[in-house]
Design a protein that fits this description.
By secondary structure, the protein is α/β, with parallel strands linked by helices. It has helices spanning 25-36, 49-58, 89-101, 121-130, 158-172, 195-205, 223-228, 240-245, 257-265, and strands at 7-10, 40-43, 65-67, 72-74, 83-84, 105-110, 113-116, 134-136, 151-154, 177-182, 185-189, 213-217, 231-234, 248-249. It folds into 2 domains: 7-84 and 193-265, HAD superfamily/HAD-like (Rossmann fold, 3-Layer(aba) Sandwich), CATH 3.40.50; 89-189, Hypothetical Protein, Haloacid Dehalogenase-like Hydrolase, Chain: A, domain 2 (2-Layer Sandwich). The strands form 3 sheets. It has a 6-stranded mixed β-sheet, sandwiched between helices. Strands 2-1-12-13-14 form a 5-stranded parallel β-sheet. It has a 3-stranded antiparallel β-sheet with strand order 3-4-5, with helices on both faces. The longest helix is centred in the middle third of the chain and has 15 residues, at 158-172. The termini are close together.
Length: 275
């Protein structure tokens, strides 16, 4: 059945935005329709806040932005988040040492700035996609790790990244949440810093029952968000793990899957559809 949805939360990259940060005209039109009906639209992304803020402004959204995999929730133009779950300082230092020992590219995010030791092609490409700069330091272990939303490890070999996640989780146990946001990105956050927790916070913030929320995603880092939403939707190009837990698999990003599912399941006063 179509449902009365009051809040829609969506991943960005691979879900509504392509590899060039472009959002289709159909998706934009659908979002405008949602706004006219008073339905909240939230971007939930692994991106750092300044990059996500750029994208939210392009969509003319005035809602809070879920950034760093859910570690922070912050309004555009504001200096401080309304919600934050940072990495424990000692745990962050342990992660940094571990990743340096594995000789894998590591990025820290401190005061909304990308911090790296090595000025290489990986960080150059990443910063270009984020439309932001970055800072190179001599030793990232000497940086202030007290307010750190996430640590990102990158390698272009998916097998290395997958093995890294499994090994790190075995070593660090429940001290950290480790997720793959792409086959090349292994992300480390506070155990409570994930998109599912962010959705629950926002539903409570707006006094909206979770049953009246809808979530969209494409990767494993979207699993908790998809599971907590009233309707959890994976785009066709999503990971197999996400498809296993979602309520519905919509069309791919190239086929405007998010817009298609919204028209199919959100009650705009037209006839019913079924899952």
């Amino acid at each position: 059945m179509k449902k009365q949805i009051k809040l829609i939360i969506t991943d960005f990259d691979g879900t509504i935005a392509d590899e060039n940060n472009q959002i289709s005209a159909k998706t934009r039109e659908t979002f405008e329709k949602l706004k006219r009906h008073g339905i909240k639209i939230i971007i939930a992304t692994g991106r750092m806040f300044p990059s996500a803020e750029i994208m939210a402004k392009r969509l003319d959204l005035d809602t809070p932005i879920v950034a760093y995999q859910g570690a922070t929730i912050q309004f555009s133009g504001e200096d401080k988040p309304i919600f934050a779950n940072y990495l424990d300082k000692n745990c962050a230092r342990e992660i940094v040492k571990y990743l340096k020992g594995k000789n894998i590219h590591t990025q820290l995010y401190i005061n909304d700035e990308i911090i790296v030791e090595n000025d290489n092609d990986i960080v150059k490409a990443y910063a270009q996609k984020m439309e932001l700069g970055y800072k190179v330091v001599k030793n990232i272990e000497e940086e202030d790790l007290s307010v750190l939303p996430k640590i990102l490890a990158i390698n272009m070999n998916p097998k290395i990244v997958s093995n890294l996640q499994k090994e790190a989780q075995n070593i660090l146990k429940d001290k950290v949440c480790i997720t793959l946001s792409t086959p090349y990105f292994c992300e480390f956050t506070n155990p409570k810093a994930h998109k599912g927790e962010a959705l629950k916070f926002l539903a409570n913030y707006y006094n909206i029952p979770l049953e009246q929320t809808m979530a969209f995603g494409d990767q494993n880092n979207d699993i908790t968000m998809i599971q907590n939403a009233g309707i959890g939707v994976a785009v066709e190009n999503a990971s197999d793990n996400l498809k296993k837990v979602c309520d519905y698999v919509t069309k791919s990003i190239k086929e405007d899957g998010v817009a298609y599912a919204i028209e199919k399941f959100v009650d705009f006063g037209v006839k019913n559809a079924t899952l």
